[in-house]
Amino acid sequence: MPATPAIPIDQLRLSVAPMMDWTDTHCRVFHRLLAPHARLYTEMVHANAVIHGDRGRLLALDPVEHPVALQLGGSEPELLAQAARIGADAGFDEINLNCGCPSDRVQAGRFGACLMREPALVAASVAAMVEACDVPVTVKCRLGVDDDHDYGRFRAFIDEVADAGCRMFVVHARNAWLQGLSPKENREVPPLRYDWAYRLRRERPDLQVIVNGGIATGEEATAHLDHVEGAMLGRAAYHTPYLLHRLDAAWFGGRLQSRAELLRALRPYVEAQLERGVYLKHITRHLLGLFAGERGGRAFRQVLSEGAHKPGADWSLVGRALEVTESFASHATPPAPTTMESK
User: Fold this and answer.
1) Which of 101, 114, 133, 166 is catalytic?
2) What SS3 state is found at 209?
3) pTM, 2 dp
């Protein structure tokens, strides 16, 4: 069975997880600005939507995003192959198959985490996708489902899918509970077992293994690099995005810029999107965590949240949010936050 192309190791060290309703093209452009070397992922898109839906919206891709992967959902090899080909032709650098999402809707469609119980089907899907496109085909999976705690079964799943041509696995190092836990609880309740991912990497040195799940600090992310090819951050990257910048600078030797510098660098993109008719709120919702944990961070979020949805909101609102934030940081008794519209 032919193997998918290998991904350069320096593109695997740091990545941002695919997150529904969050990692759209505006989010990814912002994350690319913060982390020039990170590998980025789209939200999960079902193969049927890629084939029959609005590709201009679903596959929106700015050139600055590369390297960026399209994550697909589905369980029909022919449809996944067709969607993979479309994604590769649209310019995505990788096609990733979701075998980890535990939501009821996903289960009803027979894809996501429930595919962990059908390794032959996943292998057939991967083989079809590898045959259909010339970019790397990868898999994001869990350790198992429900009360299945057998490492041998997990490794057998990986082996069967690897034999179909997959060479890179993103391992969300928890089980997925298909009954009784919400998607949010599935990200928090099942215990983390990073050691399974580490063991897989030792026992299958020809595979590339990325660890995902519960990585909240730079120290935690860095520790994983002693055992696997990379660390994939999810909610920590979204809620505290400056962490991405700190990791990128530390791991790849770039200059550590201030939050204000990074925000100002986003201005040309924001203004170009506004000219195209994009509402400011669709971009600024991804910026709210930039000053998380910093003095003035709450004011920054407040100004953007209160003003970005108003008609005519433009870059001046972002400038005002930054101005108020910097005032908080430099005054012992900071002024009350206001928006341009409320003055």
Assistant:
1) 101
2) strand
3) 0.92
